[in-house]
């Protein structure tokens, strides 16, 4: 049954001001209408930002451990509703059930983790060079945060962004992806039920141009966090730069796995299957390039394509399915276009390459696991993010060449190497120019207690999730406090006569 999905502004569920709606449909069966959703514009955004601004002072003065208790209760509710939420992720986004449950688990982990930050949020206390004087730094919240999230992790990524913003005392205006508004709404409902006061968290549904961009341009928004496409991220970065807003973005990858001649090939194949075709290749960290040492290339390709040919494609709700649909018709067409590009560029298609249209696939967006070999490093299918179940295999003569190929793309999110030689993996760990490096593991599956993000055109600004350099750095600024209790004028750096 389709739900009516509304905005959440200043503690109330409301329709979009202009009364318009859009639909969210199941990508595995587009006859299934999941939600009818408020289609918002600048008027709704303005109300949400105004509410967030009004709530900021009181929320920022609420002791952080109390804010943490609310997040802790939210984590408990997520645990209780994990299955129900997983089923919704599967229905609205298309993930197979184990991955849909993993999406929710990641939000559980993140929410507990940030609840704990309520009793940490530590700064530094250092000695002063002068007697009877204290010197310390404290984290302070920045203000109103606008968050724009993607559809591929419809519960996990909102949790990466929202929980650190809230624990540090900021208020939030949230625009989830238009493909997964029902999942986002369930997550927001949980945070509200856990006890967030009105105005602290506001949600505005809609599209990038009509709701997202007015949010970013709103003068009362102090911080913007965006995950999505590169062209949009770069435009938003320009707006934020010109308006002096704090900004972070995560916009994709072209992630390689290097498979060396001494690799455990069975293990490497498992990693390449999971990284290349898991979530139908729709992870920013998907292993879309395999760079294989020439000595094992042919054997690897044979084993890999035989294993990939066995993958079962279908609705995520079917227990036997390993690869679900892709998210939308637009994405489906884009992936099929890239497959044509690969053929025209002269890469050799050895598996898949087609849409599936019959039987259980008739009303969804299903694409066969697709493998190209003889891919050259400068081909578009080796350089551009496809975000689908398409893997490009490239050949390398040695480790140096493999690393150079791996780094020779505009993105730098995740990279992996399979090798049993500790020295080779150490060189790769040092020289791969990516935010995440995996040794003898695939490119996907980052954990929330460390920052998530990348180098080059993958990202800008502090990273998402936990750990040093993670999201706490985006949502707080440092205040430095000196307290002089000597009762006389003391002058730092000035020599005494
Ligand atoms: C992502 O790629 O967006 C999710 C993180 C991961 O699987 O590493």
UniProtKB/TrEMBL annotation:
Keyword Membrane: no
Entry keyword set: Oxidoreductase
Keyword Glycoprotein listed: no
Superkingdom assignment: Bacteria
GO molecular function per UniProt: oxidoreductase activity, acting on the aldehyde or oxo group of donors, NAD or NADP as acceptor
Signal peptide interval: none
Catalytic residue list: 250
Cited InterPro entries: Ald_DH/histidinol_DH, Ald_DH_C, Ald_DH_CS_CYS, Ald_DH_CS_GLU, Ald_DH_N, Aldehyde_DH_dom
Start and end residues of each Aldehyde dehydrogenase domain: 13-480
Similarity comment text for this entry: Belongs to the aldehyde dehydrogenase family.
Protein name, entry field: Aldehyde dehydrogenase family protein
Organism listed in the record: Candidatus Manganitrophus noduliformans
Taxonomy of the source species: Bacteria, Pseudomonadati, Nitrospirota, Nitrospiria, Candidatus Troglogloeales
């Amino acid at each position: 049954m389709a739900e009516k999905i509304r905005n959440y502004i200043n503690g109330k569920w409301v329709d979009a001001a202009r009364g318009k709606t859009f639909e969210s449909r199941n990508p595995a069966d587009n006859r299934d209408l999941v939600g009818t959703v408020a289609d918002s514009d600048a008027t709704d955004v303005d109300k949400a930002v105004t509410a967030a601004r009004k709530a900021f002072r009181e929320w920022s003065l609420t002791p952080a451990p109390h804010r943490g208790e609310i997040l802790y209760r939210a984590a408990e509710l997520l645990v209780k509703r994990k299955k129900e939420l997983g089923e919704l992720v599967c229905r609205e986004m298309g993930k197979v059930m184990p991955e849909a449950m993993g999406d929710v688990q990641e939000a559980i982990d993140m929410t507990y983790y940030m609840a704990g930050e309520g009793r940490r949020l530590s700064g530094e206390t250092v000695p002063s060079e002068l007697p009877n004087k204290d010197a310390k730094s404290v984290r302070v919240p920045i203000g109103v945060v606008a968050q724009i999230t993607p559809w591929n992790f419809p519960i996990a990524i909102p949790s990466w962004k929202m929980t650190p913003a809230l624990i540090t005392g900021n208020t939030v205006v949230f625009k989830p992806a238009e493909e997964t508004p029902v999942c986002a709404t369930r997550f927001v409902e949980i945070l509200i039920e856990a006890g967030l006061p009105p105005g602290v968290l506001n949600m505005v549904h809609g599209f990038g141009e009509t709701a997202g961009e007015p949010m970013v341009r709103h003068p009362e928004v102090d911080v913007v966090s965006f995950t999505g496409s590169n062209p949009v991220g770069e435009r938003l970065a320009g707006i934020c730069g010109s308006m002096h807003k704090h900004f972070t973005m995560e916009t994709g990858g072209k992630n390689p796995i290097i498979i060396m001649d001494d690799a455990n090939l069975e293990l490497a194949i498992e990693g390449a299957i999971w990284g290349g075709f898991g979530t139908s290749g729709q992870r920013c960290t998907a292993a879309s390039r395999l760079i294989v040492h020439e000595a094992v290339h042919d054997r690897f390709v044979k084993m890999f394509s035989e294993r990939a040919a066995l993958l079962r494609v279908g609705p995520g709700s079917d227990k036997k399915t390993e690869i679900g649909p892709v998210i939308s018709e637009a994405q489906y067409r884009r992936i099929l276009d890239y497959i044509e590009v690969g053929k025209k560029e002269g890469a050799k298609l050895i598996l898949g390459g087609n849409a599936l249209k019959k039987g259980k696939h008739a009303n969804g967006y299903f694409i066969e696991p697709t493998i190209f070999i003889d891919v050259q490093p400068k081909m578009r299918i080796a350089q551009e993010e496809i975000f689908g179940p398409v893997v490009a295999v490239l050949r390398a003569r040695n480790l140096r060449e493999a690393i150079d190929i791996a780094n020779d793309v505009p993105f730098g999110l995740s990279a992996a190497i399979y090798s049993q030689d500790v020295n080779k993996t150490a060189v790769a760990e040092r020289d791969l120019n990516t935010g995440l490096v995996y040794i003898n593991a695939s490119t996907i599956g980052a954990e929330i207690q460390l920052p998530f993000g990348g180098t080059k055109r993958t990202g800008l600004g502090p990273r998402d999730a936990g750990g040093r350099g993670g999201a706490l750095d985006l949502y707080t600024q440092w205040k430095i406090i000196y307290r002089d209790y000597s009762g006389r004028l003391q002058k730092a750096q000035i020599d005494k006569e």
